[in-house]
Specification:
Helix content: 10-25%
Shape: elongated
Order of helices and strands: EHEEHEHEEEEEHEEEEEEH
Strand content: 35-45%
Number of domains: 2
CATH architecture of the largest domain: Sandwich
CATH topology of the largest domain: Tumour Suppressor Smad4
CATH superfamily of the largest domain: Probable inorganic polyphosphate/atp-NAD kinase, domain 2
Largest sheet: 11 strands, antiparallel
Number of helices: 5
Number of strands: 15
Structural class: alpha+beta
Distance between the termini: 48 Å
CATH class of the largest domain: Mainly Beta
């Protein structure tokens, strides 16, 4: 019989370390092999911390197929379903398979610049901005159809899961994760005689590509905020974003976790 491996990835603070030790003790006693180093052979990854810890764990381990579950020791904890008081209940429910697995689509960003191309994946969102807090000027296309000349602080393209993150803070729409789509939301769009930008978010179906073409690219650099992590690119010719075929997975124990999260975190 093969070993049942569980990854436990904890934030470096006192409370998270306490939950880590408690989980290790209880899971080891029930026959699991726990590891603090990520293993692709594991059947589950437990992340202890906040949403930032969850996102870092997913990115650092290259968006693995191993499903995640989270214990919230942070502030918001939208991805982190379980509280610090749920350790015993979690162990019992997991052993009895009283949970369901959900998949979350990623978004894929292709950055084209003079001399090359980079590909990035995001769980929540990709934000396109100019460097040094300048306004960014972008021609925006949906597939090959020209939409607008955007001028403002930037544009957010978010997944449904990410619709309650940065997107929500700038009055973007809340989108249920079961919907397959991406959302584009403006950051401080400027409206004048020279520029007419959309003031609200738009929802784009799957298999559509949002393309940004920076204007006056010789004057500066483009910043991409990938789930909050900054990347700077020079001489960018275009940025293309679409819903990816890649997914990550998590297990949930409550049937109403999404609606309860909306109510508990925001209302």
């Amino acid at each position: 019989m093969s070993e049942r491996i569980i990854n436990i990835l904890a934030k470096d603070d006192e409370l998270s370390k306490k939950i880590l030790l408690e989980l290790e003790e209880k899971l080891d006693a029930r026959g699991f092999l726990t590891t603090r180093d990520f293993s692709n052979e594991a059947e589950l990854s437990i992340v202890i911390g906040g949403d930032g810890s969850f996102l870092r764990s997913v990115h650092e381990n290259d968006f693995p197929e191993v499903p995640f579950v989270g214990f919230n020791t942070g502030h918001l904890g939208f991805f982190q379903e379980l509280s610090i008081d749920d350790v015993d209940k979690f162990v019992e429910n997991y052993i009895k398979s009283e949970f369901k697995q959900e998949s979350l689509h990623l978004i894929e960003t292709s950055v084209h610049y003079e001399g090359g191309e980079s590909k990035l994946y995001s769980v929540n969102e990709m934000v396109v901005k100019a460097n040094k807090s300048k306004a960014v000027e972008l021609d925006v296309f949906i597939n090959s159809d020209y939409l607008e000349r955007f001028f403002g602080d930037g544009l957010i393209v978010s997944t449904p899961a990410g619709s309650t993150a940065y997107n929500y803070s700038v009055r973007g729409s809340v989108v249920h994760p079961k919907l397959e789509c991406i959302q584009m939301t403006p950051l401080a769009p400027i409206n004048s005689k020279a520029f007419r930008s959309l003031q609200n978010s738009i929802i784009v179906p799957p298999n559509f590509i949002i393309r940004f073409e920076p204007k006056k690219r010789y004057e500066g650099e483009i910043i991409l905020l990938n789930d909050g992590e900054e990347r700077i690119f020079k001489n960018v010719t275009s940025v293309e974003i679409n819903l990816s075929y890649k997914k990550i997975y998590r297990i949930v124990f409550s049937k109403n976790i999404y609606w309860n999260n909306l109510k508990d975190k925001f209302l």
